[in-house]
Amino acid sequence: MKAFFAAEAQEAEALREALGASEPLSGPLPLHRGEEILVAETGVGKAAAALAVAHVLTRFPIEEAYFLGVAGALDPSLKALDLLLAEGAVQWDVDLTPFGRAKGETAFGVRLFPSDPRLLQKAKEAASRLGLPHRLGVVATGDRFLADRKEAERLRAEFGAHAVEMEGAAALFAAWRFGVPMALVRAVTDGAGKGAEGDFSAFLKAASRRLGLLAQALLY
Known about the structure:
Helices cover 38% and strands 27% of the residues. By secondary structure, it is α/β, with parallel strands linked by helices. A hairpin with a 2-residue loop joins strand 3 (31-34) and strand 4 (37-41).
């Protein structure tokens, strides 16, 4: 069984429609099932994402998983609706530097939680077949919506990140702990600077549809 995760209700709805996951299931979060497919709406933020992934991987025999959603661009070359195939994600708001760890490095000794290379390659091939603009990169995850260009530039310089969002590193962490392969893919909605909240709202629907198309292509 394949699992698809998304944080926002609009993202999850687009995935459900694209994948034919129409059967609602009981649980602590919105879950819908299709033929050998599960779509989970995690809610926003790292805690919500980790909880949702852990719940699904405990309850269902998941063989591979994808976390799909939107993000703000840190790299100015990324345009609205471009796909960022995340080679890995770092929690930019984790700071254990008083204990000799690098900024973003967790107590597990891991700073960058990677996407599964095989699934990331599948996502790359799917995006290519669909003709969707895409590139590989690094995602910075934190429990704050970023709408400050100076801080965005700092995150890009400090972590080598290309986009910023609020769930990816936590989702990859949970999958890593369970030993289940997961890939993280983000569609750009904004530039993580002034006016980011308006751009996010403006592009959320189109980005969600694009991610639904990608999800469909990932089935084959």
